[in-house]
């Protein structure tokens, strides 16, 4: 265990830094058991005396924050860290996965401590990917040897009655060796992975047979849901994964669920959720029809772009635009209802750990963001599953109460990407916008440092200007 090469003072400083960080990051009572068990396990892992636990408990309660700089200075003075703190961050990852579960809160803590110790996020990602590959390789080899062992045992049992006993050699009966794992985890960790317990750990981390989400497919209709499965975007072997949820489908470049995520970046395992494609295509077609009809509507109303913006902001819609609403209202309402049901089913999939016991980050736009919103509402009492969440243009309630409930589930950050001038979202939500705050149209006003509001108006305005050229509206809407 690399961290045991620290001096006793260094080990105390390391556990204290983690204790203070846990107290800062996870303040709610719903995380109290995790905080205490994690820190107690870390104290044992570092071979510290149990007598330090009362002090560690004080750090968990929020005391000792002012001592963080001192703890950092002690650690950085350690010989083991002379070339950087990467070794003990790697050891902290190994500690966090040793029981076959990588809690999302543990990963948020590791990211936080890595930042304090100036270990780059990329270094952490690379180590997790290497460790994930080693674990899977070890798991596959262990399973193969386990199958051979069972086969020989069955042959032996079958021939006992005939007087011929096939002895099982000590090599087959001994704990299986996880080749290659020692390069990452050390000899002690490799021995554990090579045992029967190690096989269980790998199955737990990566899901049944390591298939992850690609092995999951809804066997039959669940309620109103007709379609629900996962497609890989990036099939790397990693200790955490990302699920992207598309909001609608249209013709051309964005006719597939994977297309909007081509720029997501190649880190970790990534999947996109395939859901209710028939209805999402209907919605995309209706949106295209509405936008095509906007040319004649703008011409009839003789509105300049700034005037149109003012009317839409005031939710006083032109009569001709309201007349065109029948094109989109029905598919929109159908998809609103379906997205809520899909979100609840996604929560069941994550709760059952089809992805293995690894942290999951979620990103979605439009109705895809709504799927994630209902998933998190359903997971209200399941901490440690979801790491980070990004919602873009979410057609969901933006009230404080709703987001407080959702925030309890997420271990890391929740990003709300909104655009005040998203007139299409405002138009689609026109019947309820007067009663509800809509997350995709405004920032979320809640006192929680984990919730980050990002105004995307500058991005969408550039897109709109590009679109107007394609739609030959430049002359109609003014310079």
TrEMBL record:
**Any keyword Transmembrane helix?**
yes
Q: How does it sit in the membrane?
A: Multi-pass membrane protein
- What keywords appear on the UniProt entry? Membrane, Transmembrane, Transmembrane helix
Where in the cell is the protein located? Answer: Membrane
Note the InterPro entries from the entry: AB_hydrolase_fold (IPR029058), DUF726 (IPR007941)
Pfam families associated with the record: DUF726
Residues annotated as transmembrane: 152-178, 184-210
What is one GO cellular-component annotation here? Answer: membrane
Does this UniProt record's set of keywords contain Flavoprotein? no
Family, similarity comment:
Belongs to the TMCO4 family.
Q: Which PANTHER family match?
A: TRANSMEMBRANE AND COILED-COIL DOMAIN-CONTAINING PROTEIN 4, TRANSMEMBRANE AND COILED-COIL DOMAIN-CONTAINING PROTEIN 4 TMCO4
- Please identify the protein, giving its name as recorded: Transmembrane and coiled-coil domains 4
